[in-house]
Amino acid sequence: MFSRNFSMQWLLIIILLTVILFFKIELGTVKNENKILFNKLTEVENYTKNMREFKSNTGSEKFEDITIIYNRVPKTGSTSFVGVVYDLCKKNKFHTLHINITNNMHTLTLYNQIKFITNVTQWNVIKPAFYHGHIAFLNFNKFGVKRMPLYLNLLRKPLDRFVSYYYFLRYGDNFRPHLIRKKYGDTKTFDECVKASQADCDPNNMWLQIPFLCGHDPGCWEVGNRWALAEAKRNLVNNYFLVGVTEELDEFIHTLQIVLPSFFRGAHDMFSHSDKSHLRQTIQKIDPLPETVKKIQNSTVWKMEDELYNFALSYFHSVKKRLLNASSQDLNQHFMYEKIRPK
């Protein structure tokens, strides 16, 4: 009897120990699962926080936040390009605004630079937005703004642009044919002007595309300043989204349609198959004689402006080659992420 009771006691003890061990194991598992869950939640929370900080620091943005500034150089085909933009803005759901500066000035005072940047960055109800106007490049980063607008521009062969502007001031264009220009009535040809060494055709007046890309620094507007040319090139590469050339306006628009479809969807077809391809033609323009061309091309300013133009042309061709004339390798290019650590 004693032996059976003793055996029963041991059996109960073993069962009790088994139950205790089972609960300890289960409790440990729960604690471990809770710890894992806590770590996962912390990881997610940290990831979300880091992403918020990343977006804040890098200026990551959606289409609704994008701002484009086209600081158009006079007589480069800008009216034709902007005509397409105005026709697209309602369809593609963005706003287009013309920047009109007092007396057609190309630079802003320091006060107005701050005011303009504040307005462009904080006027959210108008975004996405496409601003255009004859205004020199303005570096938003200089004023502590992390998110730069997307800058666009078009350059033209400097002598062609110069001659076109000379006759435009005298005869106007077919865009506003009844508007009297400030040199109206002056019938002197460009050749005659150059031969007489008059101020209107002074090669120094070609100093425009360089300062437009250089910016608001006073040095940008010093005629013949080599630093200004170097700065214009730096801005073209580092601060402009795309710079095209007037002579290849069709390809410029086609490229924009590929890389910025949210703004330029349908632009190329509209430009190619409508009357938008040349909205503004100077009413009367006479090509200069070879001796006139040679005299202009001997000037320092023409050489510098031509250097910028050819730099822009080469850079645009490199972009265009990989988009419009892409090789099979470029057409099939993809990227992916792998070997992500830690897991």
Could you list the spans in which at least 5 consecutive residues all have pLDDT below 50?
Answer: 33-60
Strand content: 5-15%
Strand order of the largest sheet: 2-3-1-4-5
- Helix share bin: 40-55%
Query: What is the global morphology?
Result: elongated
Largest sheet: 5 strands, parallel
**Topology as a string of helices (H) and strands (E):** HEHEHEEHHHHEHHHHHH
Secondary-structure-based class equals alpha/beta
- Report the end-to-end length measured between terminal Cα atoms: 63 Å
Q: What is the C-alpha radius of gyration, as a whole number of Å?
A: 33 Å
Mean pLDDT: 84
Output the number of helix runs. 13
The total beta strand count reads 5
Overview of the molecule:
This protein is α/β, with parallel strands linked by helices and 343 residues long. 51% of the residues lie in helices and 7% in strands. The protein has helices at 2-58, 78-89, 110-122, 158-171, 190-195, 209-214, 226-238, 249-259, 261-264, 267-272, 290-297, 300-321, 328-331; strands spanning 67-70, 95-98, 129-132, 150-155, 240-245. The protein has a five-stranded parallel beta sheet, with helices on both faces. The longest helix has 57 residues, at 2-58. It is elongated and about 130 Å long. The two termini are 63 Å apart. The model is unreliable at 33-60 (pLDDT under 50). It is a single-pass type II membrane protein.
